[in-house]
Amino acid sequence: MGPEVRESIVKGVQLPVATTKINMVDLPLGATEDRVCGTIDIEKALTEGVKAFEPGLLAKANRGILYVDEVNLLDDHLVDVLLDSAASGWNTVEREGISISHPARFILIGSGNPEEGELRPQLLDRFGMHAQVGTVRDAELRVKIVEERARFDKNPKEFRVSYEAEQDKLQEQITSARSGLSSVQIDQDLKVKISRVCSELNVDGLRGDIVTNRAAKALAALKGRDNVTPEDIATVIPNCLRHRLRKDPLESIDSGLLVIEKFYEIFS
Amino acid sequence: MGPEVRESIVKGVQLPVATTKINMVDLPLGATEDRVCGTIDIEKALTEGVKAFEPGLLAKANRGILYVDEVNLLDDHLVDVLLDSAASGWNTVEREGISISHPARFILIGSGNPEEGELRPQLLDRFGMHAQVGTVRDAELRVKIVEERARFDKNPKEFRVSYEAEQDKLQEQITSARSGLSSVQIDQDLKVKISRVCSELNVDGLRGDIVTNRAAKALAALKGRDNVTPEDIATVIPNCLRHRLRKDPLESIDSGLLVIEKFYEIFS
Amino acid sequence: MGPEVRESIVKGVQLPVATTKINMVDLPLGATEDRVCGTIDIEKALTEGVKAFEPGLLAKANRGILYVDEVNLLDDHLVDVLLDSAASGWNTVEREGISISHPARFILIGSGNPEEGELRPQLLDRFGMHAQVGTVRDAELRVKIVEERARFDKNPKEFRVSYEAEQDKLQEQITSARSGLSSVQIDQDLKVKISRVCSELNVDGLRGDIVTNRAAKALAALKGRDNVTPEDIATVIPNCLRHRLRKDPLESIDSGLLVIEKFYEIFS
Amino acid sequence: MGPEVRESIVKGVQLPVATTKINMVDLPLGATEDRVCGTIDIEKALTEGVKAFEPGLLAKANRGILYVDEVNLLDDHLVDVLLDSAASGWNTVEREGISISHPARFILIGSGNPEEGELRPQLLDRFGMHAQVGTVRDAELRVKIVEERARFDKNPKEFRVSYEAEQDKLQEQITSARSGLSSVQIDQDLKVKISRVCSELNVDGLRGDIVTNRAAKALAALKGRDNVTPEDIATVIPNCLRHRLRKDPLESIDSGLLVIEKFYEIFS
Amino acid sequence: MGPEVRESIVKGVQLPVATTKINMVDLPLGATEDRVCGTIDIEKALTEGVKAFEPGLLAKANRGILYVDEVNLLDDHLVDVLLDSAASGWNTVEREGISISHPARFILIGSGNPEEGELRPQLLDRFGMHAQVGTVRDAELRVKIVEERARFDKNPKEFRVSYEAEQDKLQEQITSARSGLSSVQIDQDLKVKISRVCSELNVDGLRGDIVTNRAAKALAALKGRDNVTPEDIATVIPNCLRHRLRKDPLESIDSGLLVIEKFYEIFS
Amino acid sequence: MGPEVRESIVKGVQLPVATTKINMVDLPLGATEDRVCGTIDIEKALTEGVKAFEPGLLAKANRGILYVDEVNLLDDHLVDVLLDSAASGWNTVEREGISISHPARFILIGSGNPEEGELRPQLLDRFGMHAQVGTVRDAELRVKIVEERARFDKNPKEFRVSYEAEQDKLQEQITSARSGLSSVQIDQDLKVKISRVCSELNVDGLRGDIVTNRAAKALAALKGRDNVTPEDIATVIPNCLRHRLRKDPLESIDSGLLVIEKFYEIFS
C-alpha cells in the first residue's frame, strides 16, 4: 500500500482484486502511535540496511471497523490521528525523513465512560453520531441478561448457534440496505427543516447537517424504503446533534432532549 | 503459548496435557509492564537476530492466582492491563511491530490500604468482590495472634505441620465445592430480588448482578448444598456491591451497611 | 539548496532555471521539527559516514504555499520557526555542529478554532492578515452546501469538472493582478490616513501599516485598477488590523468592528 | 547467592561456613535502585554475552546493618524496597527478563529530620521502633560534647583508645543478651495488658503488639534477667508505638506521651 | 583557540595576527547549548576515536557582536552562559570529562517584548544598558517609514547605496571615538554625583556606577570631546539605571523617569 | 587516589609527598554531577574495555578551596554531595557497579543572592559560617571602588603589583596564624557562655557551638594571641549562628542582630 499503488490508482491502472471478510480491529488500551500508524521495520533496517515500512493497525483496519474502548482516555493526539485518517481515508506518516501514505478507510467506533473524562469539544464534533448508553433499571430484564450471560459462559458455541438465524437476518438486512442506499431520496423541504434545526441550535459548521441527512437516508434504506420520512429524522437527529451543542454548565438535562424539542417545533 | 497453540485450539487439535499445582504468583511492587506482560528477549534478538517473545508474570500466573499487594498504588494503566487479562483470559502484547496473544486465565487478588489512595471508580467496579479488613480490638485475641506469630518465627516447619490437617480439610472442601458448583440452582424469584437490590441501589451496569449470582452459588456449593438460600445471598451481597455504589462525600458510613439494609427491605 | 547555491547567488552566477507548478504543502498535525526544518540523513551518516542534509517541509514549500491546520495547537516554537522562515525567506538549521541555510520563500496559511486556544499575541501580530470564519445561519444556503458536498462525495471528478471554468477565470484574474501589482499607486493622503487609523488604534509597530498598504494595492490590482480607492482600504483594513488590537477582556465585540468604525471616522 | 544456593538450602545441603565481622553498610544519598538491589553486569553482558547478576548494597548488608541517613528524603519506592527486604529477608529483582532472589537479612536503621518531610504513614508503621532525638539544652553538657569532638578531631586514634574498655563491655553485654534472649519469658497477664494498650490507642494491625513484646524481651535479656518486668515494657513501649498513632493535626504534643499515659492507666 | 593558545598567551609568545571585519552573529531562537558553547565533534569521535572540540557560536562571535532576539524567551540558564562569557571574556565548557576554555569577548545585544515575559532581576542587572523602544505615533512619520521599507523591498541594493555616505560618516565617527576614548576625563565631582544618584535610588552593587561612568565617557568621545559634561550623563543615566531599580508593583510609570528626576535633584 | 592508596594509608605505608600551591577550583554554573564527582572514562571503556575512573572537580579541589557562585541556585542534591564531601573529607561514587572513594578535603565557599531563592534550612545549617554582604551607600567610597575597577581594567598587571605588598603581608599573617592555631586556648567559662547563647537561641544540634569555638580560636590566632577574648567571640558569633535560627516569618530584622543581643545579655 505504498506510493506505487497510489500512483497506479492515479494512473487508472486496473489492479487485481481479492474479496475478504470485513476486519474488526480492536485498539488495545496503551497501543503506541507507532503501532497505530505503522513504523520502520527495525529488523529489516538493521539486517538489510533499508528503510522498510511496517504497517500499523490503521492499515489492518482498512475497509473495516476500528473499535476503541475508553476513547476518552486515549491521548488527544492519537484520537486526532484516528479522526484524520477516518475523515480523509488516508494515513500519512511523516517521520525520520520518510513520508508514506496508504489508504485507511474504516468506520471508527469509540466507547467510554464520560464520568472518567470528556473528549475535547472539537474532537467530539468530529464524531458522526453519539449514542448514550444507560443501565437497564427493570429487574426482570436484568435477570434475563444475567441468564443470557451465564448461558454464554457455560457454552459459548451453543449460545452463538442459538442466535445465528437472527444474526443472519440482520446481516442480510444491512447488505440490502447498503445496495439500496444510493437510490434513497430526501425531500428538499425536509432538508431545509434539518438545516433549520441545526442553525437554530447554533451548531457550528455543517457536519451536523451532513450527518443527519446521511443517517436519515441510511435508516430509510434499512427499513427498505426509498424515501426519508420525518420519523426517520426524528429517530436519528438526537444522536447526530447531541454532542454538537454548546454545553451550558448550569443545565444538567441531556442535550438530546433539546434536539428533539427543537425538532418538533420545526417539523410540526 | 504463541499463535500456533491458539490456531491449534481453534482447529480443535488435541494437545498433550500436563497436570501441575496451581501457581500463586506474587507481583512485586515496582515490576515493569515488560515484566508483567512479557517482552522481546534482548539476548536472542542480539545474538540470533530474531524477535523472540519472553513471557511475563501473566503467562506464569495462567490457570493460577495473581496476587498484588498495594494494588491501589499500582499505575492505573498496569491495573487496567491486569483487569483486561483477568476478564478476557488472554494477554495481548502490541509493540515494536509484534502482536502476540497467549492465554492468561487467573484469579486476581489485590490488597491495599484505602487511606493511601483509592482506585479509579471504573477500575473498582471491575473487581468482582471487595472485602474490608479491620484490626482485631479484643486484647486476648491479639495476644493469641502474637503468640502464633512468635511460634511461627521460632519454628516455621513445626508451625505448618500443626495446621496441616485443618488446611487439608479446607482444600478438600474447596475441591468438592468446585465439582458441585455447576449443579447449584438459584430460584428465579431470588434472581429477581438480587437484581432489584442492584437496580434500587443505582448500581451501573450488570456486573453487580452477575457477580452476586455467582458468589451465592459458590457459597452454597462450599456448604455442600445444591440450592442457594437467602442467607447465602445475605452473606455475599455486601462484598459484591459495596464498591459499586456512588460515594456520597458527606456520608461516612460503610457502603456495605447500605447494601445489607436494602437487602432486608427487599428480601423480607 | 546548500551553501554552494547561496554562494553562487551572492556571486551573481546565472543558475539553470526550471518552471514548475506552485507547491501546496500540508503540514500534518504532529510533524516533528526535524521533518519541518530538515535533518541529518541517518542512513547516509551510518553507511557513508558523512553528514548529509535531508530537506524538510520548508524546503518542499519553497516558492509555494504552506498550509497548517489547527495552527493554534502547534508548539509555539514550531510556529516561531515557520514565521521566521516566512519572514526572512531562509530556513537556517543550527544543530549537531551543522549550520545549513536554504531559501524558504512561501506563503503561510494557518487555520484554527480560537476556542481551543489562542496564539501568543506576538505571534498573532506576525501574521499579515487575519480572517474570521463563521457558520452560515441561513437554512437554504446550508442545504445548498450539504448538497454540493453530497455531489462531490458521489463523483469527485464530475464535481471538479463542473467548476473548472470558474476556477480558470479566477486563476487568470490572479495572474493578471500579479503582473499589474507593481504599477498600482496609492495616494499620499490615503497612506497618511491608514497610518492615522493604526496610530489611533494603538497598534504596536508598523507591520499593520505596511500590510494594509500592500493588501489595498493587491485588491486594486485584482480588480484591474492601478489606483487604490478608499473602498479597497475599507475592504482589507479589518483583516489587516483586527488581530493587532490589544484585547479588552471585558469587551466581547469583534475587534474588526472597532477597526471599521475608526476607518469611517478618519476617512470621511 | 543465586538460585543454586537457594535450592541447596531447600534440599538441606550442608554448605561450608565462614565467620566474618558484622557489616555496617552506609547507603549514600542518591544511590540508584540498581546499586541498592543489584543489576546486570554490563561488562560481562557485552564481552561474554551472558546475563550476570552484580549484587548491590542489599547483598553486601546481608547479616549486618544497613544505615540510611535522611531516610525521609529517599524515594518512597526505594524505602519500600528496603522494608520489603528487611521484612522478608530476601531481595528479589525482576527486570529485563531476569528474576533473581538472594538472602538479604539485615537490621535497617534510618535517621532523618521530620521538619524536612515525613514518611508515608504506612511506611512509618513498618519501622519496628521510632526514637526521637532532641538537642541537649544544658550548656555545661554542650561544652562537654564540644570538647569531646575537639579531642576526637585532634587525635582520633587516641580518642578511640580511651573509650575501648567501655565499648568492649557493651559488646560483651550485647553478645550475652543475644544468647540469653530465647529463654526470656513474658507473663500472659503482661501480654494482654500490652495488647490492651495497643487496642485502646487504636493502633492498626498487630505489628505494635509484636514489636513491643520483642523489645521488652530484648531489654530484659540486656539487663541479664530471664523475665520481663512492667518497667521493661514502660521503657520500650513509647518507641514501639509512638509512630503508629493517628496524628491529630490540632494536637502538638509528642505521641510518646500519649502512649506512656495509656500504659500507666492500664498497668496500675 | 584551545588550551595551547592560552598557554602561549600566558607565556607571552608572539602569535601571528590577522585583521578581519567585526562579526555580527545572530543567535537563532531555539539554538541548543551545544551549538552556543561548542561541543564534541561526533564525527571525529567516531571515526578517529579522539575527543575533538567543535567551537560554537560564542567562538564565532569572539571580538564581534552577538545579537539575541527575544532574549526574554531564552532559557535562563542559556542567558546566564551568555552573560558569564560576555563578562569574563572566556567561554569554559566542562562536560563529559573535558574542560576547554577559549576567548569569547563580544558585545551582547538582546531585544525582546517585556509583555511576553521578563528576565530575572539578577539577569537584568547584568545587562550594561537597557533601552526602551516604543512605536512612532505620528502618522506622517509612520508613512515615511512604510515608504522606506517599500523602497527597500523593491530594490535592496539601491536602498543600501542611498544610505552609504551616511553610514560611512557614522562608522568614521565611531572609529575616531574609539581611539579618543582613553583620553576622556570625568571630574571627581561628577563621579561622586553619579554615585549619589545610584546610592539614593538604592541600586544594589556597583555595576550601575561603573556603567554610567563608562557610557558618559563613550558619549563624550562620540561627540569629539575629551571631557564629560553633565548633559552627557543626563543622556545616558536613564538607560544605565532604569533596569536596576526595584519594581514597585503598584507604580506603573517608567523607571527611567525616576532616574532622571533624581539626576536633576542632585546635579542642580 | 583509588582504593589502593586508601589501603596504603590504612596500613600506614609511607607514601612519597609533593608540595604544591593550594588549588582554587571554580564550579561553573551548570556543571553536571558527573563532572563534579568524577565518572567513568568513556574513551578508555570503549577502546580498552575497562572501567576507568576519571576524577572530577572534587578530586581537583582536594586540599584546596572550592568556590560555588549562586550556590542557592544549584540543585539541592548537588549541594548535598558537596557538603557531604566537605564534611567527611572523602568523595564516594556508587554507580554502574563501581564504588570508588578518594580524599576530598577542601574548604567550600558559596555565594548567592537570597532574593533569588533560599537554601533548604538543613543545608544552610551545614555551612559553618554565613556572612551577609551589602552594598556600600557612601558615594565617595563608591567612586573609589569604581576608580579601582577602572584602574584594573586599564592595566591588570600594574594593578596587581600595586597590591602585592599588602597581599604578601596578609598571606604571612594567615600562615603564622595557621601554625599558632593549635596552641590557642579558650577559657572554660567562655565555652559555657557560648553554649548558653546557642541553647537560649534554640539552635538545633551542636554545630553552632563547635563552629563558634573554632572561629573564635582562628580569629585569636590571626591577631597573634594565644587566648580567646570575649571580643573575638563577639566578632564571629553572628556569622556562626545567624543562619541556624528558626525564621519567624513575621519578623524582618536580620537574625545576626538577635545573636549579638543575646551575646551581650549573657557575656556581661
The percentage helix of chain A is 40-55%
* DSSP summary: helix tally of chain A: 13
Characterize the main sheet of chain A.
Answer: 3 strands, parallel
What radius of gyration of chain A results from the CA coordinates? 22 Å
> What structural class should be given to the helix and strand makeup of chain A?
mainly alpha
Distance between the termini of chain A: 51 Å
Task: State the assembly state of the protein chains.
Answer: homohexamer
The number of E-state strands of chain A comes to: 7
Average predicted local confidence, pLDDT of chain A: 83
Biggest interface reads:
E-F, 31 and 32 residues
Order of helices and strands of chain A: HEHEHEHEHEEEHHHHHHHH
Give the amount of beta strand of chain A, in percent.
Answer: 5-15%
- List the uncertain runs of chain A: none
Identify the overall geometry of chain A.
globular
Order of strands, main sheet of chain A, comes to: 1-4-7
What does this entry look like structurally?
The structure is a homohexamer of 268-residue chains. Chain A has 268 residues and is mainly alpha-helical. Chain A has 13 helices and 7 strands. The first copy, chain A, has helices spanning 3-11, 33-37, 42-47, 57-60, 76-88, 121-126, 139-154, 156-162, 164-180, 188-200, 207-222, 230-241, 255-267, and strands at residues 24-27, 39-40, 53-54, 64-69, 90-95, 98-103, 106-111. In chain A, strands 1-4-7 form a 3-stranded parallel sheet. In chain A, strands 2-3 form a two-stranded antiparallel ribbon. A two-stranded antiparallel sheet of chain A has the order 5-6. In chain A, helix 10 (188-200) crosses helix 11, helix 10 (188-200) crosses helix 13 (255-267) and helix 12 packs antiparallel against helix 13 (255-267). Chain A starts with a helix and ends with a helix. The relative contact order of chain A is 0.09. The A-B interface holds A 28-32, 34-35, 39, 41-43, 46-47, 54, 57, 113, 115-116, 135-140, 142-143, 145-147, 149-150 and B 49, 51, 77, 80-81, 84, 92, 94-97, 120-122, 188, 191-196, 198-199, 203-206, 209-210, 213.
